[in-house]
Specification:
Radius of gyration: 20 Å
Strand content: 5-15%
Helix content: 40-55%
Shape: globular
Strand order of the largest sheet: 1-2-3-5-4
Length: about 325
């Protein structure tokens, strides 16, 4: 159960009284999630999601509020946080930072079909087109600058073969991205796996959980998506899902020549990013709560497949 801080009905009712959102009918803890306490809240007027932030850098929460407000104002399918009668979104509840969101329709797609891939590609392309003008700034916490020091922490736990693989990859990324031209920048989701989307049938209900949101290379975001949404269990890319997603993306934001050149390397870098972050959770910095960590080997498999088979040809787009 991922409710680390239980709440009582009177606590939630008092919290709701600050907002123009109706009166409490029921509150239910949500078992999904690994970092924060989440509750479904029903009022006499609407369905809401209440999140208590259990860990992480709380001083960065205003960035996430500003980003979600910005994307919501641009009509992206995101849960724009509710603001109270004084215009304030971020509050404290049970001594934890708290945000209230509208509950978006749908559920996580376990095996996305082509229509769902096109929907996601279109939404991500729209998001990146407008996020280039987002005025906020939060450096990407999981880019190459993070990989360089952090990969040393897990080498002792790896086989000699995997040690060599990880060290060689990081050195390769340093050489490639150190000399590569600057890539288009903007605000990123930073973790847009299937379980951070909601679909009502083939219709995208929303992009959720922006708590890895940051600013940086837009291509980083797209590579994370492809490595999850268009990848088979053996790590190989599925051409139909890959093309459906990227073609839809490019109708909203065509990739530049520099991005096309960097694409195979970015797929590898983001695969290693998750292999490393999952290894760190298993061996170095286990979660504060009794939760089963994700399997690091999944992204070792993805990385080895990218090395063995390369990237698929990118669909054409109009620059």
């Amino acid at each position: 159960m991922a409710v680390f801080t239980p709440l009582t009905d009177p606590q939630v009712a008092e919290f709701l009284s600050r907002f123009d959102a109706g009166s409490l009918v029921s509150v239910e803890g949500v078992p999904a999630g690994t970092e924060n306490s989440t509750f479904f809240v029903t009022t006499d007027r609407r369905e809401l999601v209440l999140t208590l932030f259990e860990q992480g850098e709380h001083e960065e929460l205003p960035f996430f509020v500003d980003l979600l407000d910005y994307l919501d104002e641009h009509r992206l399918p995101v849960p724009g946080p509710l603001h109270d009668r004084d215009g304030v979104a971020l509050h404290t509840l049970a001594e934890k930072p708290a945000l209230l969101f509208p509950r978006l329709p749908g559920k996580h797609p376990k095996a996305p079909n082509l229509a769902q891939c096109r929907e996601l590609g279109d939404a991500l392309g729209r998001m990146h087109a407008v996020s280039r003008h987002f005025p906020g700034h939060r450096p990407n916490p999981r880019d190459l600058h993070w990989l360089l020091p952090m990969h040393h922490k897990v080498l002792v736990y790896l086989s000699p073969e995997d040690q060599a693989l990880m060290k060689d990859e990081v050195e390769t990324y340093q050489g490639f991205f150190g000399d590569a031209p600057d890539l288009p920048q903007g605000a990123l989701h930073g973790d847009l796996f299937r379980d951070n989307t909601l679909f009502d049938g083939d219709r995208l209900g929303g992009l959720i959980d922006f708590y890895n949101g940051c600013t940086g290379d837009l291509l980083f975001d797209l590579a994370i998506v492809i490595n999850d949404w268009a990848t088979e269990p053996d790590g190989r890319l599925d051409a139909a899902r890959h093309d459906a997603l990227i073609s839809a993306y490019q109708t909203r934001r065509p990739l530049t020549a520099a991005e096309r050149d960097a694409w195979p390397m970015m797929l590898r870098l983001t695969a290693l990013r998750y292999w490393l972050s999952r290894l760190l959770v298993v061996y170095v910095d286990p979660p504060a709560h009794d939760l089963t960590p994700h399997d690091p080997d999944q992204f070792r498999t993805v990385l080895k497949a990218r090395l063995a088979h390369g990237a698929l040809p990118l669909p054409e787009g109009d620059e």
